[in-house]
From TrEMBL:
Catalytic activity: pyruvate + acetyl-CoA + H2O = (3R)-citramalate + CoA + H(+)
GO MF, one annotated term: (R)-citramalate synthase activity
Broad enzyme group: transferase
Any Gene Ontology biological process: isoleucine biosynthetic process
Pfam short name (any one): HMGL-like
PROSITE patterns in the cross-refs: AIPM_HOMOCIT_SYNTH_1, PYR_CT
The protein's name: Citramalate synthase
Enzyme Commission designation: 2.3.3.21
PANTHER family associated with the record: (R)-CITRAMALATE SYNTHASE, ALPHA-IPM SYNTHASE/HOMOCITRATE SYNTHASE
Domain Pyruvate carboxyltransferase: 6-274
Pathway(s) served: Amino-acid biosynthesis; L-isoleucine biosynthesis; 2-oxobutanoate from pyruvate: step 1/3
Length: 530
């Protein structure tokens, strides 16, 4: 029997943008919608045309794109009380959006109708039915039954009546929403099955929309699918109101890779998921979630020596899927919990021969440096350079001679505090003496270093510093506390971490910056081990 294709409905641009700290520009919205269409998402909810001009402009512009089979949806609520649907500004805005699909949200929970909207239960049913009927004259209508599960628990007959009202008015899919995110999977399964049974005569499809307040949004989506729902609504990375929505990344991966009865995206491979997840984080200007299942940086990162020992024999010993299936990759971390296996595994990734003497040498150096406060877990690029130094394949691209920082220079009247860095370094025979200004000493050092190197190494223009972390660490050497600086840098193809440790924060930052630049230059020319 062929797998049942579950339609994926993305609301990153609407419910996702209701997440705290998330704000998409018009261009961000257009870019994300295009990305989602590229990977074959079935529905992309673009926004709320009644809400703001940006969303109106989004629908105007995206209409000109050929998005293949992906349907753009405009979202809005049922008509206001005591008003004809045709006269309601919200209805008019939805029609004006000219989308192939309109998603209409209405009230299911009797208490919300009477105490929040201040309407009778019959008026709420009329608002749902008349709105759906009006919109169905213009476009496909998906009906989002807000608070469906809470409403059903409070008054099951009325909750079912609201669905019937939308179904008989021409909606094509009824989406049961766990709006407050507090329902348990077994309740979702039972209520989904009951709703489907009660509307058996309507020849209509069902969908599920969950929130993550009980950390069950993905589990609840899967439970509803098992009970008969054939559309899942959610957001990329689970961003959304309060604790967020169901993370579509995990929903798609679980449905397609774990539950053999289902497929998503018409059976296309899911190898773009990691890239998509990071693209949305970057566009939303949010930090990646390292431990995010399937696509997080740590999702396939192995730290414990015993784990790495087993992974070297068979990946399935500590990996639930092959990371490549979702476009992710295995990472082997080096720390005080490492055994020789961690080093061997990393060496393998770098095509370095598994030479016991060499591995012991690397491990001994890692342990020595960790005693001083270094930690290579998030500093794979510094570890790479360390291995190059031990294997004598490190070829310095420049020789830093000295730097000086003038900190705390206040621009008169502006309130801005600047720092200046002056650096001297050698590239081959040539001596460079450069100065630059920055918002702080590290920013100034970074700017001065690039300025001095850019003529010799133009590829540095692609590189940017994306994160900077400082921590005070106790070195086992005893005397003064050390400062550990971690810097994350990236270019178009990779993100890499470097580390510096010193009693002085500027020196620690300098070491991490120099490693970041050296790593970029080495990787451009010659991968480690070949
Ligand atoms: C579960 C969800 O995520 S639903 C989507 C939630 N998303 C958003 O709210 C973001 C976009 N919203 C907005 O931009 C604004 O709230 C707007 C434009 C929709 C409405 O703005 P305003 O008219 O100023 O109303 P406000 O937001 O204060 O209150 C909501 C109004 O809609 C009414 N309303 C709420 N839900 C519904 C509904 N399903 N059907 C009809 N009317 C509704 C309320 O009764 C209230 O009207 P009232 O003041 O006459 O009682
Ligand atoms: C429709 C919606 O976003 C909700 O009920 O959560």
């Amino acid at each position: 029997m062929s797998a049942k294709n579950i339609r994926i409905y993305d609301t990153t641009l609407r419910d996702g943008s209701q997440g705290e700290g998330v704000s998409f520009s018009l261009q961000d919205k257009l870019n994300i919608a295009r990305r989602l269409a590229e990977i074959g998402i079935d529905y992309v909810e673009g926004g709320y045309p009644l809400s703001n001009e940006k969303d109106v402009a989004f629908f105007e512009q995206i209409r000109k794109d050929d998005l293949g089979d992906t349907k753009i949806c405009a979202f809005g609520m049922t008509r206001r009380r005591s008003m004809k649907a045709a006269d309601d500004p919200g209805m008019k805005a939805l029609v004006a959006a000219q989308t192939p699909c309109i998603t209409l949200v209405g009230k299911t929970w009797d208490y919300h109708a009477t105490d929040v909207l201040n309407v009778t239960l019959d008026e709420n049913l009329a608002m749902i039915g008349e709105s759906a009927e009006f919109l169905a004259g213009h476009s496909e209508v998906i009906y989002d039954a807000e608070h469906f599960f809470d409403g059903f628990k409070a008054n099951p007959d009325y909750a079912i009546e609201t669905l019937k009202s939308a179904a008989s008015a021409g909606a094509t899919c009824l989406v049961m929403c766990d709006t407050n995110g507090g329902t348990l999977p077994e309740e979702v399964a039972a209520i989904t099955a009951t709703a489907i049974e009660k509307l058996a005569d309507y020849n209509i499809q069902f969908g599920i929309h969950t929130h993550n307040d009980g950390e069950l949004a993905v589990a609840n989506s899967l439970a509803s699918v098992d009970a008969g729902a054939c559309q899942v609504q959610g957001t990329i990375n689970g961003i959304g109101e309060r604790c967020g929505n169901a993370d579509l990344i995990s929903v798609m991966a679980n449905l397609a890779l774990k539950k053999k009865d289902y497929s998503v995206l018409g059976g296309r491979p899911l190898t773009h998921l990691t890239e998509l997840s990071r693209y949305v984080y970057e566009t939303a200007n949010l930090q990646w979630r390292g431990g995010q299942p399937f696509v997080g940086q740590s999702a396939f990162a192995h730290k414990g020596g015993m784990h790495v020992h087993a992974i070297n024999k068979a990946a399935s010993t500590y990996e639930h899927i092959d990371p490549a299936m979702v476009g992710n990759e295995r990472r082997i971390l080096v720390s005080e919990l490492s055994g020789r296996s961690n080093i061997v595994a990393i060496a393998k990734q770098h095509n370095i021969e598994d030479d016991r003497g060499l591995m012991d040498k690397i491990l001994a150096e890692v342990v020595r440096l960790e005693n001083q406060g270094y930690q290579y877990e998030n500093a794979g690029a510094s570890f790479d350079l360390l291995v190059r130094r031990i294997t004598e394949t490190f070829m310095p691209h420049f020789n830093p001679i000295k730097y000086r920082i003038v900190a705390g220079d206040r621009e008169s009247g502006s309130g801005n505090v600047f720092a200046e860095a002056i650096i001297k370094l050698e590239v081959g025979e040539k001596l460079w003496f450069d100065a630059a200004e920055g918002h702080g000493p590290v920013n100034a050092l970074d700017a001065a270093l690039r300025k001095a190197l850019i003529d010799s190494y133009p590829c540095l223009s692609e590189m940017r510093l994306i994160d900077y972390k400082v921590r005070v660490v106790d070195s086992s050497a005893g005397t003064a506390a050390s400062i550990r600086v971690n810097i994350e840098s990236s270019d178009a193809s990779e993100t890499w971490g470097t580390i510096g440790v010193s009693e002085n924060i500027i020196e620690a930052s300098w070491q991490a910056l120099v490693d970041a630049v050296e790593y970029k230059l080495h990787k451009e020319e010659m991968p480690l081990g070949g």
